[in-house]
Design brief:
alpha/beta, Gyrase A, domain 2, Four Helix Bundle (Hemerythrin (Met), subunit A), Rossmann fold, 6-stranded mixed β-sheet, 46% helix, flat
């Protein structure tokens, strides 16, 4: 592989800038720039020099031998003063060296994948950790980055390989009397693995919502206080408010954090029958987004009001414009702030409960791989008890399940998803 380099910190003025070099010529480049290769894993103060020997900067140099670095290759990190001019000068100096080139976005992490320092799910976890905005997202991403999915997958894989080996042993004795009936152990291994896969698959939707954000739709009749409530929750004028009914025509989205959970609030058009074609489009969009949301906050004018939207058991119902309410039911006012603390607690309680059921499978790709494995295991289970004559079919289904799990962690068949995964990475990671 070529030796690559790039700044590992964001561009701009900073106290310190880190420049990373990785590949077979990394140590040679270090020797050229600072005069020697400092001891591994120790920060050593060195002067970094230009081609003519002039000082570019004085900074810390850390070296990592092959097999002991993030990428698995010889790696050098230069920690210099965070001047744009210094950083550019060092990058030019590195670019002048033979066999070195500027890294592409995500290329350091891609090399870690190819060198078996990370599996594909850990790469995805690293991307999510970089993008994490809330505490719950951070914790979830770190679980994935730590290799938890890979550890689970390896256990399932061992079970299925054991089950397939038992079945294949019966195939070898097809013309003889098989001394032991292996079907009970095979069935047990399949059932155990199948139960785990189904549990992880069932919690994958909640995990995706933690990663991407829960959607909470505010719905109600026109002029009931939806936009005022959204502005109060957002702490800014995100939506236009007016005494004129039907002001909101489209769905307005505001991202925020509620008790560590990422939440996207949706302000929707007022729900009513209208002859205004444009407003009707807004009403239709409001109903569609509300039906797809994870939670709905319904603002009503009375207890028995019908909004024309199916509400679920967990959805929240409040009397709108609480500053004018008579106290006969729970009310909320975005204008005065009355009831907002209770609303936030109610939203948090419901979303925390859903987040608690989240599995470690955080992407649609993970869910699809699990589903393929589940289908293959059901196919194996259906034939495993039909005697030695069906052992070959059952073993092939088990191998299909193993291949699905291998695709989950990137052992096979993932070239088509690599570009999408690494497109989210910045230069120098």
């Amino acid at each position: 592989m070529e030796t690559i380099f790039a700044p590992a910190t964001a561009r701009g003025k900073a106290g310190v800038t880190v420049t990373r070099i990785s590949g077979p010529s990394a140590f040679a480049a270090c020797q050229t720039l600072v005069g020697d290769v400092p001891p591994a894993h120790r920060a050593s103060l060195r002067i970094i020099r230009d081609t003519d020997g002039a000082m570019l900067d004085e900074g810390l140099v850390i070296t990592f031998p092959a097999g002991k670095s993030f990428t698995g290759e010889e790696t050098v990190e230069l920690q210099t003063h965070g001047s744009i001019a210094i950083t550019n000068a060092i990058l030019r100096r590195l670019g002048d060296l033979p066999d070195l080139r500027l890294a592409e976005p995500g290329e350091f992490t891609k090399r870690a994948l190819y060198n078996n320092r990370l599996d594909l799910t850990q790469v995805e976890g690293l991307a999510d950790l970089i993008e994490a905005e809330t505490e719950v997202q951070r914790k979830q991403a770190q679980r994935v980055l730590s290799g938890e999915i890979g550890a689970l997958t390896e256990g399932w894989r061992r079970n299925l390989i054991r089950a397939a080996a038992l079945l294949e042993a019966t195939i070898d004795f097809a013309d003889e009397e098989v001394p032991i009936d292996v079907s009970p152990e095979v069935t047990s291994l399949i059932d155990t693995t199948l139960r785990d896969l189904q549990q992880q698959a069932s919690g994958s939707h909640a995990a995706e919502r933690v990663r991407d954000s829960f959607e909470v739709a505010i719905i109600g009749a026109p002029n009931i206080g939806k936009s005022t409530l959204l502005n109060a929750l957002a702490g800014r004028d995100a939506a236009i408010t007016s005494e004129i009914a039907g002001t909101t025509r489209d769905v307005i989205e505001v991202r925020m954090e509620i008790d560590g959970l990422p939440v996207t609030l949706l302000d929707t058009a007022g729900l009513r029958e209208t002859s205004d074609q444009i407003e009707q489009i807004g009403v239709d969009r409001a109903k569609k987004r509300a039906s797809m949301a994870d939670l709905r906050i319904a603002l009503v004018q009375s207890v028995d009001e019908s909004l024309g939207v199916d509400l679920e058991e967990d959805d929240l119902i409040y009397l709108g414009k609480g500053d004018l309410a008579d106290g006969t039911m729970r009310s909320i006012s975005g204008k005065t702030g009355a009831g907002i603390d209770l609303l936030l607690k109610d939203v948090s309680d419901r979303l925390q409960q859903r987040a608690g059921s989240a599995s470690i499978m955080i992407r649609e790709r993970h869910r699809i791989a699990l589903q393929r494995g589940i289908e293959a295991l059901f196919a194996a289970k259906n034939v495993v008890g039909q005697g030695p004559d069906q052992a070959e079919l059952a073993a092939e289904s088990l191998r299909s399940a193993v291949r699905a799990l291998d695709s989950l962690v990137g052992r096979i068949g993932v070239e088509d998803v690599l570009d999408e995964v690494f497109a989210t990475f910045c230069l120098g990671k």
